[in-house]
Amino acid sequence: MLSIDPSKRSSLERRICDGDLVIVYERHDKVKAVRVQNGSDFQNRFGVFKHSDWIGKPFGTKVLSNKGGFVHLLAPTPELWTLVLSHRTQILYLADISFVISYLEVVPGCVVLESGTGSGSLTTSLARAVAPSGHVYTFDFHEQRASLAREDFERNGMSSLITVTVRDIQGEGFPDEFCGAADSVFLDLPQPWLALPSVRRMLKQDGVLCSFSPCIEQVQRSCEVLGADFTDIRTFEVLLRSYEVREERMIGTEGVQDSPVGSLPRKRRQCISRDVNNDSKEITTTTSTIIARPCRETRGHTGYLTFARLACS
């Protein structure tokens, strides 16, 4: 990941070294994580890219293949890691992640408890938010998932900010060593209300909880239990709609004679070609224009985010 040292965060100031993890950007919907190894190569439909040509170049560089195709070499960030990580479980995406970090009031120096770890999508963003002096303690009941997540954090250089533990938070609660020490708690559990008594003990005064639930029935049950010890209870559903903005060619016809009503108003566009059909007395024009429209695949419901603040006793 990008350095947690604010003075070294600019990816343009960092050179790619042998052994670095880079994000190969092929197009907006296709990115891959690649470990740079001198003597190795990366192949895709654009050609063969030698790793030796990457070493020494700054992150963000556009590199060419043997066929003249190109990709961009990006520095790994939590946002990019979310797009390339292995999906061991259903993950949170950027719209939910940014909302969670904002409403949990996560800032540098915070102590955050998370259950469960899953694929580690949210965990990496939490770690960056608490850096350099905070820490994320994440728990998962599944030993293999926890082990794989730990390996990911180590190879991404985030292990100093994240501690992964195997524990059933829903059944056992958080360890007593965190009583009154957590600034924020995040739950991604099938029955989050079972962990709420433990969450109450872990949070500092005025601490904030977030519970992620895919079903509204889970939200209803959780809010019923939250009312006893928490205040400012709110539930959100974040829906993200992205747009495609690109240039397209348009073909039209017009009469040779001027129209009595004149030409209709149009957006600025460049005329590419103009052909006259003598038989039909029409002119065919090919023009280009910039169009903007919603993407065909719009990400819909992911889950409900319920936030609550520990009430002062």
TrEMBL record:
InterPro entries: SAM-dependent_MTases_sf, TRM61_C, tRNA_MeTrfase_Gcd14. GO terms for molecular function: tRNA (adenine(58)-N1)-methyltransferase activity. Pfam families: GCD14. Residues 69-309 form the tRNA (adenine(58)-N(1))-methyltransferase catalytic subunit TRM61 C-terminal domain. Its EC number is 2.1.1.220. It catalyses: adenosine(58) in tRNA + S-adenosyl-L-methionine = N(1)-methyladenosine(58) in tRNA + S-adenosyl-L-homocysteine + H(+). It is found in: Nucleus. Gene3D superfamilies: 3.10.330.20, Vaccinia Virus protein VP39. One of its GO terms (cellular component) is tRNA (m1A) methyltransferase complex. S-adenosyl-L-methionine binds at S119, G120, S121, L122, D140, D168, D188. It comes from the Eukaryota. PROSITE patterns: SAM_TRM61 (PS51620). Keywords: Methyltransferase, Nucleus, S-adenosyl-L-methionine, Transferase, tRNA processing. The keyword Membrane does not apply. The keyword Zinc does not apply. GO terms for biological process: tRNA methylation. Its main location: nucleus. Belongs to the class I-like SAM-binding methyltransferase superfamily. TRM61 family. This is tRNA (adenine(58)-N(1))-methyltransferase. It comes from Musa acuminata subsp. malaccensis. The lineage of its organism: Eukaryota, Viridiplantae, Streptophyta, Embryophyta, Tracheophyta.
